[in-house]
Amino acid sequence: MTNSQRTAIDQSVVDSAQAANLLIEALPYIQKFAGKTVVVKYGGNALAGSMNDDALAAFAKDIALLHAVGFKPVVVHGGGPQISAMMERLGKKPSFHNGLRVTDAETMEIVSMVLLGTVNPQLVTAINQHGAPAVGVSGQDANMFIVSAHDEALGFVGEITKVDATIVKKMLAESQVPVVATIGTDNSGQAYNINADTAAGALAEALGAQKLIYLTDIAGVRSNKDDAKSLLGQATTSQLRSLLGSGAIDGGMIPKIESCISAIERGVFQAHILDGRIAHVLLLELFTDAGVGTMVSKG
Known about the structure:
The protein is of the alpha/beta class and 299 residues long. The chain folds into two domains: 1-33; 35-297, Carbamate kinase, CATH 3.40.1160.10. The protein is 46% helix and 21% strand. The chain is built from ten helices and 14 strands. The strands form four sheets. An eight-stranded mixed beta sheet has the order 5-8-2-1-11-13-14-12, with helices on both faces. The longest helix has 31 residues, at 3-33. The chain is globular and about 70 Å long.
């Protein structure tokens, strides 16, 4: 046997040992959370930043793996960048107020077209291709999300007044993976656009989820929004309230953090804010001791 062959064998043994150690490290987390519901909000920004086949496949594989080891994953998705892109293609300028999209009747039609016609089936297909039985649903289905107008200035943007998670619970009981598009209706049947962060938090509450996970296009929560080195590995709800009050959190992060706080204070065990552009970030956070991103607990 040559030295190069011996070196290659030695490296293979090391690689195998590292893989085995990772599996052993994951074991207690798999045992702890098997059978528990995990709501994963796949943000439109994360989606827009990972719409090559490999990145979408990596996310789908993560969901399929969670399903295979006994977790009960629920995917709630946004589509902000995709909606904005379609609006611009149609000659309509996107407008936002306090991190929420101003949604007139025409924009609402575009929202429905993009979320229900493009983003939802794309995610469902990817997850199905990797072995988990994903099924697409909308917040309109079975009156999952009943809403009222959030603010007249925002138009058809809904504030959730009631969540009926019956259809999602039934799907989970049948070992399916619900993929939820965030459109709701008011009592008259009018469709409304719902902020996906808010919808994910409300659904996690209704399901009594163990974890609520936000995949977005940032690494996590910063104590100083302009300093990447101020990333918080762990935070409490009281810390997040302080950051909101100080203005350290702004724009699209506001509804994310508000829904995160609400969900935890109403029974969700933990929330995680992760960079969805990182391949297999879900597995790194849930199955390793070090984790990535920001983990939020009650406090």
